[in-house]
Amino acid sequence: MLDAFSRAVVAADSKGAPIGGEELNQLRKFIAEGNRRLDAVNAIASNASCMVSDAVAGMICENQGLVQPGGNCYPNRRMAACLRDAEIILRYITYALLAGDPSVLDERCLNGLKETYTALGVPLQSAARAVAIMKAQAIAHIQDNPSEKFAGARLRKMNPPLVEDRCASLVAEASSYFDRVIGALS
Ligand SMILES: CCC1=C(C)/C(=C/C2=NC(=C\c3[nH]c(/C=C4\NC(=O)[C@H](C)[C@H]4CC)c(C)c3CCC(=O)O)/C(CCC(=O)O)=C2C)NC1=O
Fold this sequence. Notes:
CATH architecture of the largest domain: Orthogonal Bundle
CATH class of the largest domain: Mainly Alpha
Shape: flat
Radius of gyration: 18 Å
Distance between the termini: 24 Å
Structural class: mainly alpha
Mean pLDDT: 95
CATH topology of the largest domain: Globin-like
Bound molecules: phycocyanobilin
Number of domains: 2
Order of helices and strands: HHHHHHHHHH
């Protein structure tokens, strides 16, 4: 498992080189924007259970066969497994965002997941859809811009100090981790 710092060390060591100016510049940026990163992690982690239940409900709304006999969220035991999996995936994405590196997600969550799902008959497209919904939620939460239309009475704003670009680079980085999960399932 790597993070932004250990990744720089591994990259430099594989070249037998000292840590160079460009690597240091990237790490300087990582540190300078550290509080934003922590806010982004918190924006996801502290909304996780709402995000998970909403994403799985949305996935089922679009494909109601999932909760009927023969569907992979039927009976309750499978529904519970599905909610648990969505929560696991989201949790590992927050770890990757905290570390600034996807290896923890790859090694501890995605490694073998597609094979497990295929063996158990978990529909990969539906799982990817739930992850895509969580991606949209995560972007809105990092930007602190949740949709009033979709959230209704559950609307929750975190009110971090807003930066001009609404954390565009962290939004892009978090998006890439969700895309990584979707890619691993397709
Ligand atoms: C640490 C990382 C980790 C992951 C990622 C993990 C996933 C994981 N999900 C599983 C099952 C499952 N996963 C699902 C998930 C779904 N079904 C659907 O229709 C939806 C598309 C989807 C939810 C979004 C279901 C229903 C099962 C149970 C399948 C069965 O037993 O028939 C199983 C089989 C064992 C079990 O049921 O507990 C594993 C290992 N376990 C881990 O330890």
